[in-house]
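Supplementary Methods, section 5.1.

A reviewer requested that the exact input to the structure prediction be made available. We therefore reproduce it here, unchanged from the version used in the analyses.
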Amino acid sequence: MVTSTNNNPATSLIASLNAANSSLAAKSSTAATSASSMQNTFMTLLTTQLQNQDPLNPMDSSQMTSQLAQINTVSGINQLNTTLQALSGSMIASSATSMIGHNVLVAGSTINLSNGTGLAGVQLQNPADDVVVKIQDAAGNTVRTMHLGAQQSGIVPVSWDGLNDAGSAAPNGTYTFSAQAVNGSSTAAATTLSMGMVNAITPSATGATLQVSQLGAFDVSKILMVM
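The structure derived from this sequence is encoded token-by-token as follows.
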């Protein structure tokens, strides 16, 4: 089964939480700096005013109380953002565990051929009359050219039967590939996607990192499709 992260509820939730979490982190940092600065400035001004106030016309205590309340409100919001940040990070890590053992597509230009099958993907920004995929060996020689035909925008799965252009079986191993979207007489580069299996996750306070076999570590937001 092939599931796009744009349509799968679980992975969509992960992506949404990760985006929200990044926003919360930025806001939390800004709020912390603002609250600390306001508190330092207020205490400096308060000390100066108390030292230099007119004994016959002392400072209005109600204004001082109001300012202190405003500073405490900013500090409280900062603490709430920190709590939400930790909670969303925990939810992201928990949801990401469901990807372990599944193949995923991420940005990349390699395709692994095993037992006569190679799987990858291409991401199109716009519809195309034809999508041309070229697979190269380690020496840069073109092994196979495939025409995927007309395709809509989005992620297009690529399935290689392991045969070269001469009809012979290519040896198992890792190849590189490129893709072009053809529209009439014009062509445009298309984003190539590599496939790998999620072996493990590394949770953190701000989200989760997925360990994808042969491809490396990826932030959960970089997963484009679960297969």
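Residues 9-52 form the longest helix (44 residues). These observations are discussed further in the main text.
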